[in-house]
Design brief:
about 500 residues, about 40% helix, seven-stranded parallel beta sheet, nine-stranded mixed beta sheet, alpha/beta
């Protein structure tokens, strides 16, 4: 599992180590220099962009190590910087250039001659976007980089300058990185969108913070985590013990939604799927589906529904019985004005999340704001409704009132019509197969919803042949559903 910690937790974890005189900056800067020296980049000139804080100190000490290895390094800064780091850089023969805050031309001239830029301008203590002169520096450097015939490799110290470390927002100009070396542990911006996309490849430099970090702010599951969660049936398990999913999805107007939600549910390996929607195509497409009412351990409602009255009635009954429920598509509006439990999972896309927030929040939310601040939007929706919110973005955000997960493993091909219907059905299956656990520990709903998002993303990648950085090929929602069993099997057997 990948765990990310907010800035205040990181600083608190550093305190006992610093009090014990652990050389944290020395370790961080040495690791940074070693990694930079390993890079293949145009030329061997390195530019260290040095800010006022500890990240600037890391950059200066790393510049010293690199200079002693015979690499030509320029350190550019404005005003006060880490004194010991600057002294070390001078002694090592680093070219030291103090830039007038208003003289971005000189900075860009230096930058053009360097194949690697070490970004040590802003660290995890920066909030609210870059201030001057760094805002102008970051904006100008980012534009200059794009204009260069051969783009330099940008290595960020801890985080790319300009991103929101804890909230993952982009409040101003950002210098995107190819590689981010996170000191001590992951930060929320490394996992959460949109900042995640500015970090490039992220590597953690071990500094010994682990025992002092406490609970993470954000988690992302691995294949091994999901395999450990998955309920594998035993010899004596029958269909009722393996979990029964009730589907109230699809209609005569949108019959495919019922078919796809059923495919997603079946792909997760339940004991039975009951279908109570009105799509005429579900049973012919999936003869193993049982039409009509009966015992269920979870519900999936909404995908392709036109008449919400049956879903309203079924939801009221499910809440009375404390059953897990997935509300998708049009049925998300059934959450308006209700106080729900975390056993209810809402699965909105950006537009549906904006509509939900417009109905339940006192703040002004629209789709543009939701897309700019997806983490804040998902968390607020969970806090205001009491439900678990699986917000579907390129990187999905799974929020409960007191927990946050993220899933970013799906390729761009995942965003295809019906993909969300498959995810809703799959989520219903995972909730049904773990219904006994959720009855005791409802707070684990967010964990199981995150597992569903993870399996769905991995299945999409497998269907598109988009593993190991490959672009892959177009897929349909049906392709994702068909790939679910193989995806789950590969996780369980690795």
């Amino acid at each position: 599992m990948y765990r990310a910690y907010e800035a205040k937790a990181v600083r608190a974890a550093e305190e006992p180590l610093l009090a014990a005189r652990e050389p944290l900056m020395e370790r961080a800067s040495y690791a940074l220099a070693t990694r930079v020296a390993s890079l293949r980049a145009p030329g061997r000139r390195v530019l260290a962009l040095v800010g006022k804080g500890n990240n600037g100190g890391d950059a200066l000490f790393a510049a010293s190590y690199l200079a002693r290895r015979g690499i030509f390094v320029t350190a550019a800064f404005a005003g006060d910087v880490h004194a010991a780091g600057l002294s070390s850089a001078r002694r090592a023969g680093v070219r030291i250039v103090e830039i007038d805050p208003d003289d971005v031309t000189t900075l860009l001239g230096i930058a053009r001659d360097c194949g690697i830029w070490i970004d040590g301008l802003l660290g995890i203590g920066a909030t609210g976007g870059a201030r001057e002169p760094y805002a102008t520096w970051i904006r100008s450097l980012a534009a200059e980089r794009k204009a260069m015939v051969v783009e330099p490799v940008v290595v960020a110290v801890d985080v790319p300058s300009g991103i929101g470390v804890d909230d993952a927002d982009l409040p101003g100009p950002v210098l995107p990185a190819d590689l981010t070396l996170s000191m001590g542990c992951l930060k929320p911006a490394h996992l959460l969108p949109p900042a995640r996309y500015a970090c490039g490849h992220v590597e953690v430099v071990e500094l010994g913070l682990g025992p002092h970090l406490g609970e993470p702010a954000v988690r992302e599951l691995s294949d091994a985590d999901v395999a450990g969660l998955w309920r594998v049936p035993g010899r004596e398990d029958h269909k009722y013990r393996r979990g029964v999913v009730g589907l109230l999805t699809g209609s005569r107007d949108y019959p495919g939604a019922g078919v796809l939600s059923a495919a997603g549910a079946l792909g997760g390996g339940p004991g039975m799927v009951r279908y109570l929607g009105t799509s005429p195509d579900v049973v012919p497409a999936h003869p193993e589906v049982v039409p009509g009412p009966g015992r269920v351990q979870s519900w999936v409602m909404g995908s392709g529904l036109i008449d919400l009255a049956p879903a309203q009635e079924a939801l009221t009954q499910a809440l009375a019985e404390d059953l897990p429920v997935v509300l998708d598509a049009g049925a998300i509006c059934l959450a308006y004005g209700r106080t729900l439990s975390t056993r209810v999972v809402l699965t909105p896309h950006a537009g549906e999340l904006a509509a939900l927030l417009a109905a339940v929040s006192s703040r002004n939310w629209d789709r543009a704001r939701v897309e700019a601040q997806p983490v804040r939007a998902a968390r607020e929706a969970a806090e205001l409704t009491g439900a678990t919110v699986l917000a579907k973005f390129a990187t999905s955000i799974i929020a409960a009132p007191d927990a946050l997960f993220v899933e970013g493993g799906g390729p761009g091909w995942t965003g295809t019509a019906g993909s969300g219907d498959v995810l809703a059905g799959l989520t219903g299956t995972i909730l049904a197969t773990h219904a006994d656990d959720l009855a005791r520990r409802p707070e684990r709903t967010v964990l199981y919803a995150a597992a569903a998002a993870h399996v769905h993303a991995r299945a999409a990648a497998r269907a598109a042949d988009a593993f190991t950085g490959q672009i892959g090929h177009p897929i349909t929602a049906t392709d994702i559903a068909r790939t679910l069993p193989l995806t789950i099997g590969s996780m369980l057997n690795d």
